[in-house]
């Protein structure tokens, strides 16, 4: 049995009409139209329609009658133009189809626990349980491909600027960092443990001492700390170290990289050059060292306005050398007492006094 493919589903086009091809892939959808069976066959590169006609390929048609969603197939057939009026502009292969001659079922499938489509609304725990199915959805594959493209772009960018990609050890001696280490017991040295690196900090500094001068790594980092919205136990970071440079050299390097990533891999507009705030300015204007500038909502100093206020909360803060600031909220002057109480309760949920 020869079932090795000669083409991928997504690469077929009108240029392949009359060519015999062999395709491998998964059943995206099956439709039975009064004897003639249509199967949308999917692989990583796209989807193509395959037609099984009982009058032209009865054996293949008989096999297709038992095929269901997510079966893995090998199909041999001839590429032809779709009948006029049946083209599908939503598909890259929408102007052609494959008339099947031979069909092999490489692997049958049980009924999936959820449809393999982008518009499916499924509980996340269910998606994680069946991760191998979830990853078949086009949107998930696109995210994997985007990550691959971004990593490749970063490597090319760093290589162009004379950086060497160097792997550093994962099992190493514990060194002081900001979080707890993950520990791995040593079989050869009972009672001793390796630590998984929170980042290659000391290792890359050793490389600078050794004269490497420019190092980078797409590094795995491990931190034994409680999960948060912006934090997880293990993650990947672009790790960089440079010798004989000033602060502006590092900022220029990373800024240009971020701009290239955004302009190459997305259609989003990006402000160039990046605005730069000192720590003092960020805290003065936004009260945070990592403000989200998309929202505005800058602090306004109210000291001059309330200098003579008898409200003890304000008065006490000013008398102790503190500040009183507010956020300008257009349209909120008409808020009722209930609205303000609700905002107060929300602020307290996030730690406000």
Report low-confidence residues grouped into runs of 5 or more.
none
Question: How many angstroms separate the termini?
Answer: 74 Å
> SSE order, as H and E?
EEEHEEHHHEEEHEEHHEHEH
Strand order of the largest sheet: 1-2-3-5-4
β-strand percent reads 15-25%
For the report, how would you describe the main beta sheet?
Answer: 5 strands, mixed, barrel
Overall mean pLDDT: 93
Overall geometry: extended
So how many helices? Answer: 9
Provide the helix percentage.
Answer: 25-40%
Q: Radius of gyration over alpha carbons?
A: 30 Å
Quick one: how many beta strands? Answer: 12
Given the helix and strand composition, which structural class is it? Answer: alpha+beta
Brief sketch in words of this structure:
The protein is of the alpha+beta class and about 350 residues long.
Describe the structure.
By secondary structure, the protein is of the alpha+beta class. About 25% of the residues lie in helices and about 25% in strands. It has 9 helices and 12 strands. The chain has helices spanning about 60-65, 125-130, 130-135, 140-160, 200-210, 245-265, 280-285, 310-320, 335-350; strands spanning about 20-35, 35-45, 45-50, 70-80, 95-105, 165, 185, 195, 215-220, 235-240, 300, 325. The protein has a 5-stranded mixed barrel with strand order 1-2-3-5-4. Strand 2 (about 35-45) and strand 3 form a beta hairpin. Helix 4 (about 140-160) packs antiparallel against helix 6 (about 245-265). It is extended and about 95 Å long. The model has no long low-confidence stretch (mean pLDDT about 95).
């Amino acid at each position: 049995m020869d079932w090795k493919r000669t083409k991928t589903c997504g690469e077929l086009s009108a240029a392949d009409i009359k060519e015999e091809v062999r395709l491998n892939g998964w059943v995206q959808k099956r439709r039975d139209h009064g004897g003639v069976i249509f199967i949308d066959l999917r692989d990583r590169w796209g989807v193509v329609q395959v037609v099984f006609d009982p009058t032209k390929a009865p054996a293949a048609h008989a096999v297709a009658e038992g095929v269901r969603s997510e079966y893995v197939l090998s199909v041999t057939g001839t590429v032809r133009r779709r009948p006029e009026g049946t083209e599908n502009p939503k598909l890259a292969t929408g102007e052609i189809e494959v008339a099947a001659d031979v069909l092999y079922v490489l692997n049958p499938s049980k009924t999936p626990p959820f449809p393999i489509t982008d518009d499916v609304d499924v509980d996340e725990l269910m998606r994680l349980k069946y991760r191998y199915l979830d990853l078949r959805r086009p949107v998930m594959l696109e995210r994997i491909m985007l990550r691959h493209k971004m990593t490749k772009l970063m490597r090319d960018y760093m290589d162009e600027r004379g950086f060497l990609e160097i792997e550093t050890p994962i099992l190493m001696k514990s060194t002081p960092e900001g979080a707890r280490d993950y520990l791995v017991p040593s079989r050869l040295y009972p009672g001793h443990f390796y630590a998984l690196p929170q980042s290659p900090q000391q290792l890359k500094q050793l490389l600078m001492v050794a004269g490497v001068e420019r190092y980078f790594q797409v590094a795995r980092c491990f931190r034994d700390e409680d999960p948060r919205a912006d934090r997880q136990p293990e993650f990947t970071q672009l790790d960089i170290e440079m010798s004989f440079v000033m602060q502006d050299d590092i900022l220029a390097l990373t800024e240009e990289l971020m701009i290239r990533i955004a302009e190459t891999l997305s259609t989003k507009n990006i402000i160039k050059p990046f605005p730069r705030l000192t720590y003092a300015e960020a805290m003065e204007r936004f009260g945070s060292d990592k403000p989200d500038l998309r929202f505005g909502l800058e602090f306004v100093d109210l000291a001059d306005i309330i200098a003579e206020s008898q409200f003890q909360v304000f008065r006490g803060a000013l008398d102790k050398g503190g500040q009183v600031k507010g956020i300008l909220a257009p349209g909120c002057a008409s808020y009722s007492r209930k609205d303000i109480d609700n905002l107060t309760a929300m602020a307290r949920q996030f730690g406000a006094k």
